[in-house]
Amino acid sequence: MVLNWKIGGPLLGVVFFLAVLLVKPIGVSTQFVVLDGILWNTQVPGTVAQGADGAWTSSNAYLAKYADDIADPVNYSFIFVAAMMGGALLSSIVFGRIPLRERFNPDLWRANFSLGWIGRWIIAFIGGALVLFGARLAGGCTSGHMMSGMMQTAVSGYIFAFGAFLTAFPTARILLKKEA
Amino acid sequence: MEIFLAIAIGGLFGVMLERIGATDPNWIGRMLNLTNIHLMKTILVAIGTASILMFGGQMLGLVEVGHMSVKAINVGVLLGGAILGIGWAIAGYCPGTGVCAAATGRLDAWFFVAGGLLGAGAYALTYPFWKQIGFLNGEKWTLGAIPGADYPAALPNLPFSGDVLGIGIGIAFIIVAIILPRRLAGQKAPAGEGVAEPAE
């Protein structure tokens, strides 16, 4: 059972506040680029390399912005995301029991698509590609723009939230008609 | 020290995302198809709480204003947000909840993460194009003028500071969360709840 919003909301808010108090606002989607850079570098060695001045850079203009983090992933933002995964895993072991069928194909998707779990995995893959492409074009995701942005009264956070819900609500209303 | 904080705050964030149901695509789906917006209430209260604490702390001088990090406004924010919204509704995951869901053993979430790596890579390859057509140019605006920060204000002539505005908006977010009905579409009971109310 999920935490009631009256408890979960304030607790989640405190985590976002602690992040700003102690370090900086929470953000996640940049780390997909960092991991991409690390994987890219294993396939094409030298994609991220030190320039003549000793500073890390890349032949790809976008990866060059994150060259330092790709060269040394043991930094705050990358470890943060790894720790998130650890926290979620721990929490699901202590509090939650996710049924096996749900791990393959969530109930709401099973009710609305008759594609089986392989179909669900393809849908999740396509969704992931759209989400991260959009997040990088926007310069942040639901965490960085919507939550961290709006809590700081950043106008970009409101514009991002408007754009995201503008398409997310109609898409879900059309695709997720059956309830579960 | 930074790495310790990353583990502590990141770990807490992961626990909270799992506990509020954000790593469960069913709860994301019910929020986006408006049949049960319980998760949206949680998020509205979280943003409001964080805003009140941060701006209140800044007014009292307890929170370093320099820790704020505001992002630029540009066409990419709106277009990128709209593209993300489609994928969000299709998959039921966003970047943070996706990686956490994968960690909890949801197999479809691993495919979301793999797709995400492809999407982010595709953006890295097309980045010069978006930059060239000017979609990434813009300034880092906040709503009000925040004392101690250099961000240009969208509303520069308010009779109060951006800190006070931030606290006011934070309270408004919480009030909206309290007022909003659990279900916005259809007349039935909120979807996905065997019992009437998630445990307090």
Automatic annotation (TrEMBL), chain A:
> Where on the tree of life does the source sit, at the highest rank?
Bacteria
Instruction: Keyword check for Signal, yes or no.
Output: no
Record bears the keyword Transmembrane helix: yes
For this UniProt record, the keywords arranged alphabetically read as follows: Cell inner membrane, Cell membrane, Membrane, Transmembrane, Transmembrane helix, Transport
**How is it placed in the membrane, per its record?**
Multi-pass membrane protein
Q: Which compartments is it annotated to reside in?
A: Cell inner membrane
Using the UniProt record, give the first listed, main subcellular location: membrane
The record ties this protein, via InterPro entries, to:
Sulf_transp_TsuA/YedE
Q: Which GO terms describe its cellular component?
A: plasma membrane
* Membrane spanning residue stretches: 76-96, 117-135, 155-176
Family per similarity comment: Belongs to the TsuA/YedE (TC 9.B.102) family.
Q: What is this protein called?
A: Uncharacterized protein
Species annotation: Rhodovulum marinum
Automatic annotation (TrEMBL), chain B:
* Keywords recorded for this protein, A-Z: Membrane, Transmembrane, Transmembrane helix
Ranked from the top, the taxonomy reads: Bacteria, Pseudomonadati, Pseudomonadota, Alphaproteobacteria, Rhodobacterales
> What organism does the record attribute this protein to?
Rhodovulum marinum
Which Pfam family would be a valid example here? Sulf_transp
Tell me where on the tree of life, at the top rank, the source sits: Bacteria
So where does this one cross the membrane?
Answer: 6-22, 43-63, 75-95, 107-130, 160-180
Q: What is this protein called?
A: Uncharacterized protein
Give the InterPro entries listed for this entry.
Sulf_transp_TsuA/YedE
